[in-house]
Amino acid sequence: MLPVLALIIAAVPLRENYFELSKQLEIMNALFRELNVFYVDEIQPGQLMETGIDAMVSSLDPYTVYYPESRVEDLRFMSTGEYGGIGASIQMMGNRHLFIDVLPDFPAAKAGIKIGDELTEVDGVNLSEIEENLIPEMLQGASGTEVNIQFIPNASNIPQDVAVTRAKIKLPAVPYRAVVQDSTGYVVLSAFTRGSSFELRQAIRYLRDSVGMKQLVLDLRGNGGGLLQESISIVNLFIGKGEEVVSTRGKTEDWEKSYSTMADALLPAMPLAVLIDGMSASASEIVSGTLQDLDRAIVVGQESFGKGLVQQTKQLAYGTKLKVTVAKYYTPSGRCIQRLDYGGSRKKDGSAQAVADSLIEIFHTRNGRPVVDGKGIQPDATTALPPLGYVLEGLYESGTLFDFANAWTAKRDSIASPDDFEFTEADWTEFVAFASTNDSTHYESQTSVLWNRLKDLAEKEEVYTSNTAVFENLEVAIQPDLERDLNEFRWQIQTALEEEIIMRYYLQSGLFEWSLPRDSTLATAVQLLSSGAYETILAGTK
After folding, report:
1. What end-to-end distance do the CA atoms of the chain give, in Å?
2. Which of 71, 73, 275, 400 ranks highest by number of CB atoms within 10 Å?
């Protein structure tokens, strides 16, 4: 009798849930019908429903997303890294649509388009008449179709018209590989799209068999994740058969799963370091966290993003889709590194709160090293990020750096190789003069922001008039002085300018070559791998 009673009790909340679901759907249907019939102005039913759906899913977490039929292609790109297009990215700066990235050997580059060129028309449509978010869709399309583009080259004022045949654009998951000092292999993994593990395997084989790599640095900085299965296959490159990589737990039994390695490792013992930062998320955290838990690699850099959630795509009606969070994942030590609690109480503005410190638990790696949940992946060796001062931030946002790089490169057909290129004193003087005369140059310190609030309040409360001299002296002291501020932050600004210029001549591969000797996090990883510190950290005796 007891099993039957248990089934009846279990069915009660289930029936209540279905009744509540049916009730709310009936209310939604009635509301939608009444709005459509009686609202004073004509409404667009599709647009109204999409607004409601977006509001509904956004109240859950930022990873649960509804995709109307017009955006389903975005999902395919996220999982495959492929799309039909011209191989270039644009961004609105001021009132201009500028190319900010051009992929080598793809249609845009073959048509002569370069970073800094201005896009003015697509298929005869002037872009000043088009909403900014629609322009990428105009450039994308089926491989083999043609799009007519008008653009103004950076070094010219004369528009050029070109017919560009779209192609299948596949972004490489491994955009760079090399051997750096001490026979250290260095591989950048930028995405966990379909086939990423194969690309990484090929890069590692090349470095090991053809270039003589003795130790490896895997760079996951800025990698926002992707497919769960690819993260498992990538861990399997370094961990042998039969080891648990990750487990998932969800509301349904279908997501009570454990995933283990299925094959022999490619590099079962070679010293390994993984680089992470605050933008390393999801699958990047599975790889770095699992290798850390199993004491197979040291993790170097900054604390990772903290996304411990798994999404699955569901097919809806009329070609629409839903990407929905279905589970949390756990690394082999048992920790879930999810930082924000979307199911708990929210802040006043509705945003999710971080897991409370009192709820943070300590877990242990295979060798007994302590690791924690709820805070992303904590590096074994933490390095500092290069500072981003308010002056540099303002120069980025105002487009001054981009505009100067355009003007500078328009006068020069070539520059030194990426390893040798460096801004000269004359170049810096030229930039200061450019920034001083550029109307868009703007930056603002937090001190100025707070000062303006204080001044407004002091005037309202009539404190200002009784202490005018004091306030005026303070205002003079915090006023921006362009030449002084540029020189004070010269190191940051000059580095950013060199990056902009290198990208225009050598694209992404050149930028990697330029940045490697300046990369303090990479240098730390190489030093740890090349010394006894590597074994000491993994043994938990540091």
Report:
1. 60
2. 275
Task: List the catalytic residue out of 282, 284, 304, 398.
Answer: 282
pTM: 0.90
Please state the φ and ψ torsions of residue 59, each to the nearest 5 degrees: -75, -10
Cβ-based neighbours of 6, under 8 Å, separated by 6 or more? none
Q: Is 293 a catalytic residue?
A: yes
CB distance 234 to 295 below 8 Å: no
- Contact of 201 with 226, CB cutoff 8 Å: no
357 in helix, strand or coil? helix
- Quick check: helix, strand or coil at residue 539? helix
φ/ψ of residue 251, rounded to 5: -75, -30
Pairing of strands 272-276, 215-219: parallel
Euclidean distance between CA atoms 399 and 29, whole angstroms: 48
Is residue 282 annotated as a catalytic residue, yes or no? Answer: yes
- State the pLDDT at residue 347: 87
Domain boundaries, the chain: 13-36+43-59, 82-170, 181-382, 390-444+480-523
Q: From the candidates 114, 307, 321, 375, give the one annotated as an active-site residue.
A: 307
Per the residue annotation, which of 293, 403, 485, 519 is the catalytic one? Answer: 293
Using DSSP's 3-state secondary structure scheme, residue 431 falls into helix
Nearest alpha carbon to residue 453 among 430, 478, 428: 478
Give residue-wise pLDDT tens across range 168-210: 998 899 999 999 988 999 999 999 999 999 999 999 999 999 9
Instruction: Report DSSP letters for 204-252, one per residue.
Output: HHHHHHTS---EEEEE-TT---B-HHHHHHHHTTTS-TT-EEEEEEESS
- The amino acid at 27: I
Residue 38: which residues within 8 A CB-CB, separation 6 or more?
none
Read off the pLDDT of residues 34-86 as tens digits, 9 standing for 90 and up. 999 999 999 999 899 999 999 999 999 999 999 998 888 888 888 888 889 99
Which CATH number is correct for 82-170, 3.40.1190.10, 3.50.20.10, 2.30.42.10, 2.60.120.1440?
2.30.42.10
- What's the rounded Cα separation, in Å, for the pair 85 and 165? 8
CA 394, 395, 396, 397 torsion-angle sign: positive
Residues 6+ apart with CB under 8 A from 165: 107, 144, 145, 146
Was domain 181-382 assigned CATH 3.40.190.80? no
- In 3-state terms, the chain is what percent helix, strand and coil (to 5)? 45, 20, 35
The CA angle 373-355-13, to the nearest 5 degrees, is 100
Tell me how far apart the alpha carbons of residues 436 and 164 are, in angstroms, rounded to a whole number: 39
Q: Which two tokens stand for residue 237?
A: 């490159």
